Amino acid sequence: MNIKRTTIVGVLAGALTIAGCGVSVESGSTSGSGTSQPSTSSEQESSAPPSDEPELSVSQQQALESAASYLETGAFSQKGLIKQLKFEGFSTQEATYAAKKVGADYKAEAVESAMSYLESGSFSQAGLVKQLVFEGFPKTDATAAVKASGADWGAEAVEAAQSYLDSGSFSRSSLTQQLTFEGFTSAQAAAAVAAVGL
Predict the structure, then answer these.
(1) pLDDT confidence of residue 19
(2) Which domain holds residue 118?
């Protein structure tokens, strides 16, 4: 009997201890300070760091809009776009800012420019690279763009040879010389001259 009574007393004491712990936990959860509560959206917004981007001036905004407009109508290198914006009256600083911030992919612009030149006339590979560099593209971008154009340079040589014959008189040797001057290889020039009947 003593053993049972002792066991019962122990069990009751343990139950009271657990109950006491539960009360103390609940008491702590309800009486805690406000710092334990999640922050509200207004508090999160107020703690956001300020933007480092300075506010655009009216001139900078106008330059950006003008740059975007030019890129919608044609292909430009960064240098070419700056030059065009300066021609429109924007300062060097405004034009440079706009050309850098307009979000253009100037490598893609080089490819677009190469394709446009090939659609409007005949070019050798070397001649088209030279033209793109003249337009302000870096030589590496110009070279990559010309390769990406997928042009048939042999066909371009024939087209150039025919164009020369349509506009004037040429001997076989003079037409071959003219084509090599335009940047076609000797083999491309010779094949083109033969293809037009000389």
Answers:
(1) 43
(2) 105-149
